[in-house]
Amino acid sequence: MPTRLKKSIEYSASAAKRIIGVYAAFAGFWILVSDKLVSGWFSDPLLISRISLAKGWLFVVVTALLLYGLIRRMQQQAQALCEREMTVQKDRATVRQLLDKIAESSSDTIYAKDLQGHYLLFNQEMARVLGIPSEQTQGMDDNALFPDQAEMIRANDLRVMAEDRPITYEETVTTALGERTFLSTKGPLREADGTVTGLFGISRDITERKQHEQMLQQSLKDKHALLMEVHHRVKNNLQLIVSLLRMEAGRSTVADTRAVLGSMQGRIRSMALLHESLYRSGTVASVDLGVYLGQLAKQAFHAQLVLPDKVQLQLVMGSVVVGMDQAICAGLLVNELISNALKHGFPNGRGGDVVVELQAADPAPPTAKDQWRLCVRDNGVGLPADFASRRLHSLGLQLVDDLSRQLGGKLSITSQPSAGTHFAVVFTALEPAPLVVPA
């Protein structure tokens, strides 16, 4: 029974009880009071009889008017309630028709099941996907419609009922259109009083989207493999160039030529090591700068060291991820500074240490945007007195200045006689830029 109609009936019953109560109270009051007044005022029996008769008819007229007014009011209230109920029912019917039109026009499959999993209804899109008229599916379950996936579908339905909330799944089922993947949102189906009577579902066909995602993932894997191969081949080509330079240096009888070719080998090796690091790490455009510079420092140090027992290398490396551009600049810079320290810092068999440091420039925990400090120092003989004039004509030191600027930092140089030299660059470690691969 509709809630409003039920309330109307209850209200009418309550009003009738009130009318009966008012009538009984009024009648009792009228009889007792009027009889006492008549007996007190008159003594003639005939006159009392006539007055009592008139009193009775007056009571009938008054009560009749009161009852008419009360009943009329009840009728008006009941009629108003019925009209409101009819309006509500009409509005609900309009809403249902609108919802039916929306469901039938939807490109998503919409359906409802009872607690046992039997289909109560589904829209035209569901019928099209299944290839079965909707009127033929009344009472059918997933074992009949999706025999290969019924167990999976039923398990999802039971979870929705157990958790009593809507849940979204990806469900791949066999349909009249072939194997299709749906993004299905299912939830409890409730009566007006909140009682769960079944389950509803709205499913969108995402088969094409899933296929496109798989194609993109495969394309990404292919391009990643291609970039890895590029890094590997670039590294091999750079190593081949280093070998050619080493052969030319071995054939040359001019010391300056051999020195230049040796410096070029170190610079090319630093770039080859970067591509090898990217290839081995599986990344395509970013590198852990601390790890890369540590490997590079060891390679450059052992390649140029003349007295292994005299000079030692020390590494104090932090960890920060940067892009290829900053890594190349930092690698070439470290290579030049180590080469400079070994050439000029320890003459005549002097011993000592070369220290390479990469640390956050402030005491706060480092992030990709923090300031970092790259330092190469030694405890050798220090810079000569005419270092300022030599700096203008030295290709290596000019390269150090240029690399510091490309790194985004500022170079500082300090030195004391017989106490060593200190080269430091403070720079901002930039996040690796997204790699754009041509289609």
Please provide a written account of the structure.
- This protein is of the alpha+beta class and 439 residues long.
- It folds into three domains: 3-103; 106-205, PAS domain (Beta-Lactamase); 303-439, Histidine kinase-like ATPase, C-terminal domain (Heat Shock Protein 90, 2-Layer Sandwich).
- The chain is 58% helix and 20% strand.
- The chain contains eleven helices and twelve strands.
- A five-stranded antiparallel beta sheet has the order 2-1-5-4-3, sandwiched between helices.
- Strand 4 and strand 5 form a beta hairpin.
- Helix 6 packs antiparallel against helix 7 (255-281), helix 7 runs antiparallel to helix 9 and helix 9 (324-344) packs antiparallel against helix 11.
- The longest helix is centred in the N-terminal third of the chain and has 61 residues, at 45-105.
- The radius of gyration is 48 Å and the shape is elongated.
- The mean pLDDT is 80.
CATH topology of the largest domain: Heat Shock Protein 90
State the end-to-end distance.
66 Å
Count of alpha and pi helical runs = 11
How many β strands by DSSP?
12
- Strand arrangement, largest sheet? 2-1-5-4-3
Write down the overall mean pLDDT.
80
Shape: elongated
Q: What series of H and E elements makes up the topology?
A: HHEEHHHEEEHHEHEEHEEHHEE
**Strand-pairing-aware structural class:** alpha+beta
| Gyration radius from CA atoms, angstroms | 48 Å
CATH superfamily of the largest domain: Histidine kinase-like ATPase, C-terminal domain
Looking at the overall shape, the CATH architecture of the largest domain is 2-Layer Sandwich
